[in-house]
Amino acid sequence: MNASHDAVRLQTSLLSAAEKRLLVWIASRLPGWVTSDGLTVLALAAMLGAGASYRLAAAHPVGLVLAIACLAINWFGDSLDGTVARVRRRQRPRFGFYVDHVVDAVGTLALLGGLALSGYMTPVVALILLATYYLLSIEIYLATAVTSTFRMAFFRIGPTELRIVLAVGNLVLLVHPRATLFGHRWLLFDIGGVVAACGLLGTFAISAARTTRQLHREEPLPPGC
After folding, report:
1. Greater pLDDT, 20 or 7
2. What is the DSSP code (8-state) at residue 67?
3. Res. 60: pLDDT tops 60
């Protein structure tokens, strides 16, 4: 991901340190024809492919495996586009921030749309998960604009960790598509989707409260108001 113009990138995820070293190593060895913009397009294509793979999973479980491959390709494109630009000193911070997150919004819509049609997650749960994702995304982008700090992870979890969790979940689905909870059988990804939506909603509330408190402290009311 690319931070907006002059914003400080705050990446505190579990894998961020090792991932950063790996990405710089890869970026410094990529041929010149592999561009930052091309990697962004690759990331979007991979997310569209992941959505299509989940749709295919409604007919054949191989779609779950293809979705894992698409998530890996998405990581490659989405994580490397900004790194390549920085390594080659060809940054376009505002352009990169805007395009990268438009791509994220479209890609997430495709991913969860595919899940809603896969039979492994009910459409209502997918819609709730999409809504909470967008809600948190809006808060992050607004906070970046007003605080000049782009927070890329919460509670040590970032995009890479989320991809890994989703990929592991796909493997589990191949064996156990349902789970028992409170005496009832549920779709495993419905349970996971509800938990994820609650986590996103809670993160939104905490992040919004933190940003509001910071701005209130930095912009106090004039005396007498």
Report:
1. 20
2. H
3. yes
Q: What is the CATH number of the domain that holds 116?
A: 1.20.120.1760
Tell me the DSSP string of 89-133. T---HHHHHHHHHHHHHHHHHHHHHHHHTTSSS-HHHHHHHHHHH
User: Which H/E stretch holds residue 179?
Assistant: strand 178-181
What phi and psi, each to the nearest 5 degrees, are found at residue 150?
-100, 105
Q: Are 160 and 91 in contact (CB under 8 A)?
A: no
- Work out the number of other CB atoms within 10 angstroms of the CB of residue 187: 18
Question: Residue 150 falls within a domain, yes or no?
Answer: yes
The pLDDT score that the predictor gives to residue 176 is 93
Provide the 3-class DSSP secondary structure of residue 30: coil
pTM of structure:
0.92
pLDDT for the residue 221: 84
